[in-house]
Amino acid sequence: MNNIKCILLDIDNTLTNVNEEISTETTEYFNKIKEKYHIILVTGRTNSYAVEKSKICNASSIVVSDNGAIIYNYETDKVLYSNFFKKETISAIWDISQKYNIDCVFNTIYKRYRNNIYMNDKYLKNNNIGINSIDELKDCVSQIVLFGTNEIEHQKCLEEIEKIEDIEICNKGMESDGRYFADLNVTGTSKGRAIMELYKLLNIEKNNIISFGDSMNDVPMFEKSGYKIAMKNAKQELKNIADYITEFSNNENGVIEFLKKYL
C-alpha cells in the first residue's frame, strides 16, 4: 500500500464506537500521519456533524457529507462541490410527508430544519430548527431524511415520493430506537460520485485511495477506491466486495489497528 495518498472513512460504526465516540488512540494516530495523508470523513450524516467529528480526530479539513451531496472545506469555509434539491421537489416531499405524518428533515450546509409538528425534543439541539411551513426554509437543501414510527405509513410515503423525478433513496432502515428512516438525495448523488470530485480536487487516482465502511451506502465509495476495507461489524453484503475485513470492530479501534498493520 505504498501508493496510498488518501484515507476515506465512514463515520458511524466505522470510525466511531456504538456511542458515537472517537477514541483517543484514533486522534493521536491521525495527528501523527495527517501530514502524509489526506484523511477525509465521508458520511451520510450532516455537514456540521462531519465537521465536528473531523476536528475531534485531527482529520483533514475537507469533509464529504449527506451521502456525497456536499464536499466542504471547513478551514476556508468553502463548498467545493454540491448537489442541491430544486425548490419544487422540496415542496412536493414536504406535502407527502405531512400527508403520512412523517417527520421530514432538511439538511443544509450549516443547519437542519424539520417540521415542528413531529419533532422529538432531543432534535431541538445541535442546530435543529423547527418549521411549520416550507416557506420558512430559506437555505439550499443537500439531503432530506424521513423518520416515522409506523412501518406501513413510512413505506407508503416512500412509494409516493419515489414517483417524483430526480429523487434517489440512498439509504433506509430502522434505527435502534425503533424509528424507520430513509435518506433522500438528488439523483446521481452518492459517496462514489463525490470521490470522483476528490480525484480532481486532490490530484489523486483510484489506486491512491483506501476506504473504510460498514454499510450499504459505502458501496459507491468502495467502487471508486483502490483498497476497500469493510469493518468486522459491517454488513455481510459489504464484506463480500471488500479487499480486506478488519480484525477488530468499530468498538475496538478497528480502523486504527488495520492502518498500523498494513499502511
Overview of this protein structure:
With 263 residues, the protein is an alpha/beta fold. Helices cover 31% and strands 25% of the residues. It is built from nine helices and 14 strands. The protein has an eight-stranded mixed beta sheet, with helices on both faces. A six-stranded mixed beta sheet has the order 8-7-6-9-11-10, with helices on one face. Strand 12 (209-213), helix 7 and strand 13 (227-230) form a beta-alpha-beta unit. It is globular. The relative contact order is 0.17.
- Which geometry do the CA atoms define? globular
Order of helices and strands: EHHEHEEEHEEEEHEEHEHEHEH
Q: Distance between the terminal alpha carbons, to the nearest Å?
A: 6 Å
Query: How many helix segments?
Result: 9
Average pLDDT, all residues: 93
Strand content: 25-35%
Note the main sheet: 8 strands, mixed
Lateral arrangement of strands in the main beta sheet: 5-4-3-2-1-12-13-14
Number of strands: 14
Pick out the low-confidence regions.
Answer: none
Q: Helices and strands: which structural class?
A: alpha/beta
Helix content: 25-40%
Radius of gyration: 18 Å
